[in-house]
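ok so I'm stuck.
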Amino acid sequence: MIFQQFYLTCLAHASYLIGDETSRRAVVVDPQRDVGQYVAFAAERGLTITAVVLTHIHADFVAGHLALRDQVGATVHLGRRAAVEFAFHALGEGDVIDLGMVRLRTLETPGHTPEGISLVVAEGAAQPTAVLTGDTLFVGDIGRPDLLASVGVSADTLARDLFASLRKLAALPDAVKVYPAHGAGSMCGKNLGKETSSSIGQEKIGNYALNIRDEAAFIAAVTADQPEAPAYFGHDVALNKREHATAVQPSTAMDVSQFEAVIASGAQVVDVRDPAAFAGAHVIGAFNVGLRGQFAMWAGAVLDPARDIVVVADPGDQDETLIRLRRIGFDRVRGHLDGGMAALAGRLALVGGSRRIDAEDLGRRLQQADPPLVIDVRRHDEYANGNIPGSRNIPLQVLGRSLAGLPHDQEIVVHCAGGYRSAIAASVLSAHGFTVADLVGGYSAWKQQRR
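replied:
not stuck anymore, here's the structure
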């Protein structure tokens, strides 16, 4: 058997290619939208990708099922309860994807979504060696059941399904390896572990959800304290359910006049440089989402997929930015500023800067008669584990929906754990006319300075 995990740190997303060394057939499970790595991996090993499986309709990224169908002729498989607009092969309980010696047996495991499935992997007559659990079972966590409440599927109903699904997975042999679709940092669970794989036995010991035996107690535990989901999740669910373009074109270079015209027409600007460079000089009104972090997730949280986008990047980073935006279904990218910020030299009406503050300075400011309002954009659980006294907790993924309650007549200082998320938050607030400073080094720097 050929078994390969592909891990995409930007989205904390794991996908898989499983191949049969006898038949040379292969299946790809939960692929990212840009599928070149799977095609290349298969070609290098003499494999033909005949099938592609989605364990469920993903919310946090656009999957590559249609791209693999179009590029290599793979048959698309989903759980039998999936409601989508394209043709697919339905998988129900016990159905098998037969690659030859390698077989993938379906377990219906709803709970995160109604159509969720897991795939038990075995070779020949041997006991199963692995299970691909999608977003049902993670390392140390489970899939959240609350994401479909807005379309009429209650969290309690899905949590009840999830309780039964986890019992089904727990019945597998302890030695079976667990390979989920996400790792630490994903918003598809509460607090996923850092490892990208585990085993049934390990999860029975260390996963809180597998150790709650009472259904009512389980439902209460898994529906409580879920983090706010980024607004783009609904957009991606809709895109994953329908036919969409799979061809990719390179980013279009724009001169300054073209760039200005697109902004004037209503396009949003995303600047993907690091926070220090952005603070020094940036296009007024731009959102700063650094390409060197979890770019796709946070770009999806602050940008509007229904509006055109133009990119400011260091030369050479524009095509990677385009790929990462496409991974979350932000396809309305008009192009990038040719030459980056250097192209705007002398165009002072377009350019502004932003303020950064260190922990020592913030400490002094908080003792003054007119202290700034400190906004902590970390998750609620991070805030509960330690915070700056008097600060207000507004997680970054909901900041854009929380602006009405913020003061325009008081300086705001934003921070996160280390500075990546707060740089994004500062740019969002600045773009909406607030007076804002970003705490360099975040809460970590604050704690260090207070020792």
